[in-house]
Amino acid sequence: MPENATEVTAAGIARLAGVGRAAVSNWRRRHADFPKPVGGTETSPSFALSEVEQWLRDQGKLAEVSLRERVWQQLAGHPGGPVPALVHAGCALLLLRTSPAAWREIAAVADEPMAGVLSLALDDLLTTRFGPASEVGRAVHAPGRAELLPSLPLLRGVAELAAEDGAPETFEFLLGRQLDANPRQYTLTPPDLAGLMAALVETGERPARTVLDPAAGTGALLRAVTGPTALYAQESDPDLAALTALRLALHTDTGCTVAARTGDTLRADAFPRLAADAVLCHPPFNERNWGHDELAYDPRWEYGFPARTESELAWVQHALAHLREGGTAVLLMPPAAASRRSGRRIRADLLRRGALRAVIALPAGAAPPYGIPLHLWVLRRPGNGLHPSPELLLVDTAEPAEPAPAGAVSVAPSGGRDRIDWQAVHRAVLDAWRLFDGAGAPGTGTSTEADADAGTGAGRAVPVIELLDDDVDLAPARHLPPPAAAGGPAELVGVRQRLTETLGLTGTLTPPAVTLSAPAHWPLTTVGELARAGALQLRAGGSGTGPTPVLTEHDVLGATAPSGSLPADGPPEEPVLVEAGDVVVPVLGGGSVARVVDGATAGAALGRNLQLLRPDPAALDPWFLAGFLRGTANNRQASSYASTATRLDARRLQLPRLPLAEQRRYGDRFRALAEFEDALRLAGRLGGQLIQGMYDRLTDGTVRPE
Questions:
Q1: How far, in Å, CA of 441 to CA of 376, rounded?
Q2: Residue 43, exposed/middle/buried by CB under 10 A (0-12, 13-18, 19+)?
Q3: How many Å apart are CA 168 and CA 108, to the nearest integer?
Q4: 3-class DSSP assignment, residue 294
Q5: Distance from C-alpha of 5 to C-alpha of 682, rounded to nearest angstrom
Q6: Strands 391-396 and 459-463
């Protein structure tokens, strides 16, 4: 194999051939001429991409591979690793976007001279865009000739892809793939949350033109800012800092300053004299080793020296120290930061001096860690004749559960990040903040309802004097009434009536008595065999852009309407749209679950970690298919088990070979069971609403015991 050749794993081969990983294992066992491993480990070998492609081509197994997939395989199998390869790709894309003629001239020569010329061109470009190479902590350094040489096939492919999709979109695609392939390696700020945080700093009278993110991560927060003139980023991870710098440079025009630095922000501030219009920050949570011992006399602790356990309050004061007078900062915070006793003195001083303006509780699942409802803190730098606000805006965006629609075969409901109605959250938070920030001048006593009727929670301007007690607990849940489980007192009657009707329906839908018989011994087939025979199609979800609603994993588990959304600004890619009669199964978790798509769900995009089975109606009944897929024994034999997860291989699921008429008899019974299950689920939710509503109304006095 040539030195520095691109390698590919078994999973990559499966993608190239459009098969499962088990098929690749079979090829290795059955075909003596299958390419030999050239790297990796015994349990996870890697192969030369060129040899694999030739073998697949000779065997007639090479699927029609898109340019995007080919480029990704080159990046993922790069001999120097995917992150350096992605940095090289970002540099080339920046050159292509800035000077397309220069790129064409450089790319027209052979690889050896191209590497040397390209290195010099990138050095000039990166110096112009990010400052001189001698700049302390500059995030991106020009790769040398030897570094670039193995990347040239990748860079040529990247340029070809950029000609189709655009340079920024190509980088976003490759970066997104890298992040998706290594979910545990990165702490991400979801784009909907980043958009909300950016919108909060853009609502003031003076637009945010210079913006700092001192814990930039992948640059999601700065990328969400509209029309900046200067973006400043600092990140301790050198790889992330380089990717963020390139991402921001590709996202903005040359008139916008992009200054990205590598380093520990709290210990070695890269921008000590910067006074920005706005600061956006998703800091690391619960850090003990943040510099407590070295930074005791740091001038940033204007509101008090944070305890060792209060690293988040160090980030808050760092943000305030980098704001111009009247500038706004928005930080994502763990809920404990609003109530821990060790931070009460700093919280009190933030309130007294008017620096803390709002605490906003987000729905659980808004950002990692997904299991807890995180907070947003909105801060403003005092000074310039600004008087401390006598009030603090508290907003709670807790979302009540929605009743489940019919038409699903599934297990118990499960909440999560994909079920957040971000449009409603944005509206509630921004309406409350704009009203408070615009009308909440000192002495006005402003209070507001933040779209409470929309089911996204309530907001209220609370007098600071009420919060300055021994605890200084700023958690919105402590000061705001929770969303009523069943609405107001009058709505309890309606909930009770719906519950009565639903309980009556469950009685009529209860399966009739059964007659037991000996187990059947049908001839069996598998989903994989049916797919090869053309009786059904298999499609995987998770791709695409646009306004189409997304059927998520949580929607399938909870039997709810499509609640996800596709990115609006990603690379153009067609999503997989579900049709009536499709059967959708989650591939993670190992639970017996399947959903038959009805007319109300048809047209939604198929979400991540879902597989679609589209039966030929002339050969397979969808309800028969979904019902047998739910068998416990069937799921167990088709699942693989790792230390932390269970994964379903839908191709291994088994079905009996039955005539279509017999399938429909079973399908009718499975459909009736699904309707019974839906009725039970709805009755449980209505019962829970009625019970909690009665507790709430009895305890607030609006309902009497009699």
A1: 21
A2: exposed
A3: 22
A4: coil
A5: 57
A6: antiparallel
Tokens coding 151: 């990347």
The answer to whether the CB of 357 falls within 8 A of the CB of 437 is yes
CA 562 to chain centre: 16
In b/e form, how buried is each residue of 312-341, taking b as 16+ CB within 10 angstroms?
Answer: bbbbbbbbbbbbbebbbbbbbbbbbbbbbe
pLDDT at 455 over 50: no
0.85 surpassed by pTM: no
Q: How many CB atoms lie within 10 A of CB 132?
A: 9
pLDDT beyond 60 at 450: no
Q: Which two tokens stand for residue 627?
A: 């019902």
Long-range contacts of 61-67 (CB under 8 A, 24+ apart): 61/17, 61/19, 62/16, 62/17, 63/16, 63/17, 63/18, 65/16, 67/157, 67/160, 67/161, 67/164
**The tokens of 533 are what?**
């025979």
Per-residue pLDDT tens for 241-300? 999 999 999 999 989 999 999 999 999 999 999 999 999 999 999 899 999 999 999 999
CA neighbor of 376 nearest in space, from 386, 385, 387, 367: 367
What span, in angstroms and rounded, lies between the C-alpha atoms of 526 and 289? Answer: 54
From residue 409, alpha-carbon distances to 86, 622, 675 in Å are: 42, 12, 8
Please give the order of strands across the beta sheet that includes 549-551.
564-565, 549-551, 605-606
- Return the amino acid letter for 221: L
Give all strands (DSSP E) within 515-607, no chain letters: 524-526, 536-540, 549-551, 564-565, 583-586, 595-596, 605-606
Retrieve residue 267's tokens.
């210990």
Distances (CA, A) of 619 to 71, 116, 531: 38, 60, 11
- In angstroms, rounded to a whole number, what is the distance separating the alpha carbons of residues 146 and 573? 35
Structure tokens at 585: 């199964």
CA of 517: how far to CAs of 108, 514, 521, 522, 657, in Å?
A: 75, 10, 12, 14, 19
Query: In percent, how much of the chain has pLDDT > 70?
Result: 88
CA distance 671 to 280: 50
Sign of CA dihedral 597, 603, 609, 610: positive
Report the amino acid identity of residue 80: G
